[in-house]
Design goal:
By secondary structure, the protein is α+β, with helices and mostly antiparallel strands. Helix content is 47%, strand content 10%. Strand 2 and strand 3 form a beta hairpin.
């Protein structure tokens, strides 16, 4: 079996995960899709508008895994939001990792450092929607075995009745703990020591520049927080509960207020509001 790096395209005007419940569902679909497609999960991260995976298997299994993951999440989105069509456009970049030593180490570090680079958290292990907490740490595997859940419980909690693996543990937060299915022992054997893994995390292609530029890193607003923030502004300023109800002038005011109050860039504003980046730029330039 070989190692592969899977990366979805970055959505500019929409987001995959709008709230914690969406993230929890995505977390649960990872081990379900992995078991279904017979792949081993090495590392992964779920970001609001894209996902990254490092998996072990063959190329055909990689594409099957991504298709299954998208299918499960699309069904969930359709039930909750009434739409999932945009995921059809979310293309996959699947690459074999040729160098099994430093090449694999660098790719894993790149994946795990995504939320740090996005200024969401201060360290990879502090981000809950991925496998950053699995390596060189005290693994919290207390909870219920997924195999012990009734069919009704599986459907309600996991949003799927497909099997997730006999050893998978459902944690108190309502999602399957990655420590119970991620191949953390392979990653620890690869890096050998916590300090060596920390070196690769600090010097990953994205993180090195960011860490040098930001002497004191403070977490920024998450996309999910801005979604709620935007709704609050709509209610307080326009007495409207949904962004889709806004007139053009009101939408421009919302973009300006959200930018001013949160300090978010054009890309993030476009994602959370469902607008094209160039339209957001045009609205901001008029203020």
């Amino acid at each position: 079996m070989k190692y592969y790096f899977l990366s979805s395209s970055h959505l500019e005007d929409r987001i995959w995960f709008r709230d914690d419940e969406d993230f929890k569902s995505g977390m649960n679909f990872v081990p379900i899709a992995a078991l279904r497609c017979h792949v081993f999960v090495i590392a992964f991260v779920l970001m609001s508008n894209h996902v990254h995976f490092v998996l072990m298997g063959d190329e055909h299994q990689m594409k099957e895994f991504y298709s299954m993951f998208k299918l499960l999440y699309s069904k969930y989105m359709r039930r909750k939001y009434g739409t999932s069509r945009f995921l059809r456009e979310n293309a996959l970049d699947c690459r074999e990792i040729s160098s099994l030593r430093e090449g694999l180490e660098c790719v894993i570090a790149y994946v795990l450092m995504n939320p740090v680079v996005a200024n969401i958290c201060l360290a990879a292990e502090g981000y809950p929607w991925g496998s950053g907490c699995c390596y060189f740490s005290s693994r919290r595997t207390s909870g219920r075995k997924v195999s012990e859940l009734s069919v009704r419980e599986r459907s309600r909690v996991l949003h799927s009745i497909l099997p997730a693996g006999e050893d998978c543990i459902l944690g108190e937060d309502g999602y399957i703990l990655p420590e119970s299915y991620v191949c953390w022992s392979k990653v620890e054997a690869l890096y050998r020591t916590p300090n060596r893994m920390s070196f690769f995390l600090r010097n990953s292609s994205k993180a090195r520049r960011i860490l040098e530029e930001r002497k004191a890193m403070l977490p920024s607003f998450k996309d999910q927080s801005l979604v709620l923030f935007a709704k609050d502004i709509c209610l307080s300023l326009f007495r409207k509960s949904e962004i889709i109800e806004l007139e053009e002038a009101e939408l421009q005011r919302l973009v300006y207020e959200l930018s001013r109050r949160s300090g978010s860039d054009v890309g993030q504003l476009a994602r959370v509001l469902g607008l094209r980046p160039r339209d957001v730029s045009a609205m901001l330039s008029k203020e």
